[in-house]
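Researcher: First entry.
Model:
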Amino acid sequence: MGRSADVPATLADAAIAATITGLVILTTFISMVASERAALAIGQGIDRLAGRLFHRRSMSVRALVVDLRARINEVVRTGWLKMTLGLVGYFGIYYLLFLLCMHTTGVHLFYGQLFAAYAIGRLATAVGVTPGGLGVTESVTVAALVAWGAGHPEAVAGAVLFSVFTHVLEVPLGALGWLAWSLSPKQAPADNAAHHLAS
């Protein structure tokens, strides 16, 4: 392929930043779900910080965190397998779409390199600079593809095409999904979740 397979320093820095940000978010989320004490501490800490920034508030983050924890525990307890398979299918389908976009625009790299570029782009969505990492994900994906031997125009075209499918087209499809969910019949919360909230 004629080019160095080393990852550029800017791409490495972006990947490190995304990894650290993702780990912080993941650790906070897992702590909140796994431990009621941690959930209360996180909620109280955010309440104190918000109290210093905004003197007039009508919402308690602590109450929201406790409610969210109870709902998540109930959903995960009953639907963890479906959610796991759904996520595997979701990212698997997106990877196939990524491969098609790269093939269409003339990016011909090994599947391992393409998967690495795809994974780096998905990881960059954790960098909350723009909604969904828009712009950031494309930049780091292009940098990875070019570093591993793809032509710059082809890599940019492939990343933009993939972004069109994963960002632009998700908006109308998401609106249709929201409409279907809004019109579908709802079930009352489980009794044990309500009991947990009361305690």
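Researcher: Second entry.
Model:
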Amino acid sequence: MTSDKAISEHYLHGYLLQAIRASIKKLGKTIDNISIEDLAPVDEFHIGGRLATENLLNQLSFSEKHHILDVGCGLGGAARFVADKYNNHVTGIDLTEEYVEAGKSLCAWVNLDKKVFLQQGSATAMPFQDELFDGGYMLHVGMNIEDKELLFREIFRVLRQGSSFGVYDVMRINEGDLTYPVPWATEKSTSRLATPNQYRQALNDAGFEVSKENNRRDFALDFFRKVLEKTEASGGPPPLGLHTLMKESTSIKIKNMIGNITADYIAPVEIIAHKN
């Protein structure tokens, strides 16, 4: 099985859009009155969700005239948030076709299908012309991509001079045997973690200049603590959330990720880079 196929199959749900529709109904909403705020719990498949997205974007200073690239866009939640809050046009690319097709429907539901464009494809061979975008970001993507330098060379190619690019990935902080499964990998063979230093080196080799690095371990643990407390107080998860994506494997994947972060083997890390 090719690496791309294995990764795509890891994220395959089978009836994702139907599951989201059913969860929306449980919220007492319909596709005619759902908002991006309502969708946020399922929309942003990374540690910290919307809070983490905002924190990264606040460091990138996109203007409303900018055309932004979302690498590994998933359902397009962050792309919709950027388009809505900052009035940008956003193009997202993701390997998993089911996520892309579901994401297109979500864009239409919240009337952002004229500003957000999602397509299936590989981040290491994007079907975009050189210097097309004014900036970009990726949220929990590199953990599935082995050749980080190829990834960042391709991103560098499609960004215009003067662009900023934000990375928010789970990275290897210390040696130690990780417990699997985790949200991005069922087993070690499809996990492609790298250290912050390896990310910086790959970014530099691709032509970027790194200006900032921020380990978000404490934020992650606090975020999960609050989520677990809220879930316990409510007697179970909300109608719409990451369990909608990961189904019955959600609890074990989240438990293992928290354990791996607590052990200081991994942490979500932000890196801000520029194409000068």
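Model: Note on the second entry: The CA atoms of residues 100 and 275 lie 28 Å apart.
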